[in-house]
Design a protein that fits this description.
By secondary structure, the chain is mainly alpha-helical. Helices cover 67% and strands 0% of the residues. The protein is built from 14 helices and no strands. It starts with 12 loop residues before the first helix and ends in a 5-residue tail after the last helix.
């Protein structure tokens, strides 16, 4: 007896039913690309990152070109009158006046430049030093790694603010450049350890052995093959470090061992306002708000970048 599906003129089940379709991709998701593109897509999807980036951009513009912001936000004549000393906020002068009778909003805007310059300069200098030392220690190993690791341990044991205070007190006539050098000398240890660990993990990779077998020397191996793949975690740590450096610089200024008058910075403004907080709270409030918003924005951006580049945290 012939099976019904195999009889002439009877369609087969396979001919009637369509082939199974591939499951549709969820809406809003795209094909996964490189780590950088995935991280950038992750960062763009976070409203908090956009808000913090806007705050950072605003502070950078204020530090770079303060005059347009001052002219837009307050009626600053450019003169300081002692008769206006410690006068509170008003419509024409939203932040009031400081101890010397200067428009306080204009002074706070101008004070953003040293804090931001030191934060960025120290982070960039410490990043370059960390990449160099971590690359050498991780690649060569042996006595080079032992020597650099012991030096790193010594500097790692020095508290950031306390160590900077001791050094800056020993050299009282210092300025922006000296503070930058001191903070670079105390702020490279963590990034160096991260860089060293990355290089140790990558120097025995297959593509490094392949490049070595083709005759590539140590310099080419480090610069062309190891460095591009090892530097990303260090850059993420450096982004987290910017906010810490800015707060550290403000702390040193507040303690009186950082920048000195007639320089302008948020830390110096907080130092001058500490004795008048109960009677004139605006002197402490406004620079503290600007400092807190800047430091918090850099830290939140650094946290978001770290989470975006770490697959375990996504």
């Amino acid at each position: 007896m012939t099976d019904l599906d195999d009889s002439p003129g009877t369609p087969r089940v396979d001919d009637v039913l369509p082939p199974p379709a591939a499951p549709p991709e969820p809406r809003g998701r795209k094909a996964s690309g490189s780590l950088s593109s995935d991280a950038w897509r992750e960062l763009r999807s976070r409203p908090l990152v956009a808000l913090c980036a806007g705050v950072v951009l605003l502070i950078v513009l204020m530090a770079a070109v303060p005059r347009p912001f001052i002219a837009l936000l307050t009626h600053d004549s450019g003169r300081c009158e002692l008769a206006d000393s410690r006068v509170g906020p008003s419509l024409d002068h939203p932040f009031g006046f400081d101890l010397q009778g200067c428009d306080y909003l204009a002074q706070v805007v101008r004070g953003s430049r040293p804090s931001l310059l030191i934060g960025l300069a120290v982070t960039c200098g410490a990043l370059l030093l960390s990449v160099l030392l971590g690359l050498l220690a991780g690649f060569y190993g042996g006595w080079v790694d032992s020597l650099l690791s012991r030096v790193t341990d010594v500097f790692f044991g020095l508290p950031f603010v306390l160590g900077a205070t001791v050094i800056l007190v020993a050299f009282p006539s210092h300025g922006l450049g000296a503070m930058t050098l001191v903070l670079v000398g105390l702020g490279w240890t963590t990034m160096t350890r991260v860089m060293r660990a990355q290089v140790i993990a990558l120097k025995d990779a297959d593509y490094v052995h392949a490049a070595r077998s083709t005759g590539a020397g140590p310099l080419r191996l480090m610069v062309r093959h190891i460095l591009p793949n090892a530097v990303t975690p260090v850059v993420v740590v450096a982004m987290l470090n910017i906010g810490n450096v800015i707060s550290g610089e403000a702390t040193l200024d507040f303690l009186g061992v950082g920048l000195q008058y007639p320089a302008l910075s948020w830390g110096l403004q907080l130092n001058a306002a500490q004795s008048y907080f109960l009677d004139f709270p605006h002197l402490l409030l406004f620079p503290a708000l600007f400092l807190s918003a800047t430091v918090l924005s850099f830290i939140l951006i650094g946290d978001a970048v770290r989470d975006a580049y770490d697959p375990k945290l996504r």
